[in-house]
Amino acid sequence: MNAPAPSNANPLLSPALLPDFPAITPAHVVPAVEAVLADYRAAVERLVADPSARDFDSLAAPLEQLDERLSRTWSPVSHLHGVQDSPALREVYSDADERITEFTTELGQHRGLFEAMTAVRAGAGFASLDRAQRTLVEDSLRGFRNSGVALEEPARTRFRAIQTELSKLDTAFEEAVLDASEAWSLPLAEAQLAGLPPSARELLAGQAKAKGRDGFLATLKGPVVQALLTYADDRALRETVYAAYHTRASDQGPHAGQYDNSERIARILALRHESARLLGFASAAHESLDDKMAGTPERVLAFLRELAAKAKPVAQRELEELRAFASAELGLDELQPWDVAWASEKLRVARYAFEEEQLKPYFALPGVLKGVLDLATDLFGVRFAERFDVPVWHADAQYFDVLDADGTLRAGVYFDHYAREGKRGGAWMDVCRSRLGLTGQIPVAYLTCNAAPPVEGRPSLLTHDDVLTLFHEFGHGLHHLLTEIGWPAVSGIHGVEWDAVELPSQFMENFGWKREALDRFARHWQTGEPLPEALFAKMTAARHFHAGLFLVRQLEFALYDFRLHLEYDPALGPRTLELLDEVRAEVSVMTPPAWQRFPHAFTHIFAGGYAAGYYSYLWAEVLSADAFGAFEDAARLSGSVFDAATGERYRREILAVGGSRPALESFIAFRGREPDPMALLKSYGLVA
Ligand SMILES: [Zn+2]
């Protein structure tokens, strides 16, 4: 099945475990992808035409190998596109990306393949397959069903027409938000900048410069709006910016009606509902839950309402405190929505007098990285050995072998820490190779961050946020690297329910807040001193500042999104604004003005993948907080969160199994019970 590469000259077709990055040029990309896709297509047709290929070994297994070959070819290209981009690469990247997308769609709509996989499921051998194999087949069938391929005419054609229209509407929704954001700007006089820190002034100067102007320009870019609402002492300016931002793409505000998303929202909700019904679901919310851990709408609603019941009184208290502070110290008698972030910042400074900058000397990158790797050694029994003979894409990149305690090579991982030209911003973990039992291939991951590079005589100094980000991505990495499952579709992070996939990453972040963990790597880069207790205490206290207000906002988004999709009734049409009022009455503590149009720019759910899934953020936080709770419980007995027995259990029940079984089962196997929302409230500091 795994045909030898047609040309050994193309490094993207090499059978070697690790990509030969320096040898890859843009000219290799399209020919390699074309060759792999042609082989893949031909092999699928052969499999479908062969009536004897109707069990796991003869159908699902070869498909896994075909898919892994495509992934092996594409992964280094997509990685280079992210970390070492160039105009030439970008061009071939989008060309090849289009071909792959087209192919994937074609495969998802392949009726013959769906029928062949259905036969595998119905076959006599299915029951004797192992758990991972059965899950793989079930997942694949669910994917086919939910892409409409199982439907009979005329439903099938209608379903496809809906998907095409929805994809256009998603794009149009997002473009309207972008256009509305671009359409508004406001030149600012020096006097209006009062209160802004130097970084915010620079940001505004940058906005002006980008438009070919001098001076300072307010725009509706996220960081600009955030900076102005947080720091600008000019109240009228804050109100203007708030109003422009929260009426984007709507029937209100400075560009009322011009980019209005109202009709698009109505149409999107109607089509999602119709499409879910065609697939046999009661609503789009039911459809969304089909591949999520939460399972039923009742569970999601109960979960959100339980959190709301606990969070709302805390948020109310925080708001009252803020009102009192604003009135006594800031001369604001009536706190408006555009005052909240500004007054909160003043209160935060008054209370904690705490600057992120004070922490940075304690977080020098080489030490933090060593800390993170040592932590995995203590918790999960794996060692990391750096290798200098592995070809990388840039001198900053590092490669480590991941070894078990007995020295067995288990996996490999690349790190690329620093921001530079041609590298995408943000941080992420990506898959280079998946574990493939058939060939003995080990998993390999990329971990990419964007920390400030070292300068002459000084290492890279991270913010505490950067440290948490590294822990987070490393957690995703461990999920991939420590998997025991040899079928890529359900191995590591693959096939894990969408609302559970952030468990291992958010779990690791908790260590970034633990004194015991910080003491291992937080050392002043010049003096070697550990983090002073006073600084640690301030950092910890500031962590939970206004956690209640934050949580009720997230609950408002989550409950609104979920009910909007769950309660859609074609006879009534979308209750876009009415429902928002209902949700706010239930969970919010501050009512925005009637002209506020938050839904019209809610791209997460109308243009992103979060439809009837926004609750997932909170859901995954419960899982990670509750899983970490097991280590805190162990620490109460043994005195240390680095408890090897708990670590071993976590590795076995959560990390090793990947998507081979339902996340709820894995969680219960680890924790001995179902997840408890109280864990999230505790981690937010809302309950003792
Ligand atoms: Zn993540």
Task: Give a quick rundown of the structure.
With 688 residues, the chain is of the alpha+beta class.
**Number of helices, counting only DSSP H or I runs of 4 residues or more:** 25
What class do helices, strands and sheet pairing give? Answer: alpha+beta
Proportion of helical residues: 55-70%
Taking all Cα atoms into account, the compactness measure Rg is 26 Å
Chemical compounds bound to the protein: zinc ion
Mean pLDDT: 95
Strand order of the largest sheet: 3-4-5-7-6
Please summarize the sheet with the most strands. Answer: 5 strands, mixed
Q: Using DSSP, what is the number of strands?
A: 7
**Binned strand content:** 5-15%
Q: What is the end-to-end distance?
A: 58 Å
Task: Pick out the low-confidence regions.
Answer: 1-5
Q: Based on Cα principal axes, name the global outline.
A: globular
Description:
This protein is of the alpha+beta class and 688 residues long. Helices cover 56% and strands 7% of the residues. The chain contains 25 helices and seven strands. The protein has helices spanning 26-49, 56-83, 87-108, 111-122, 131-146, 155-183, 198-210, 222-231, 235-245, 262-278, 284-289, 297-329, 337-352, 365-380, 464-481, 503-509, 515-521, 533-543, 547-566, 576-587, 603-606, 616-638, 644-655, 663-671, 678-683; strands spanning 185-188, 216-219, 382-387, 398-404, 409-418, 428-433, 444-451. The strands form two sheets. It has a five-stranded mixed beta sheet with strand order 3-4-5-7-6. Strands 1-2 form a two-stranded antiparallel ribbon. A hairpin with a 4-residue loop joins strand 4 (398-404) and strand 5 (409-418). The chain is globular and about 80 Å long. Residues 1-5 have low confidence and may be disordered. Bound molecules: zinc ion. Residues 472, 476, 502, 505 line the site of zinc ion.
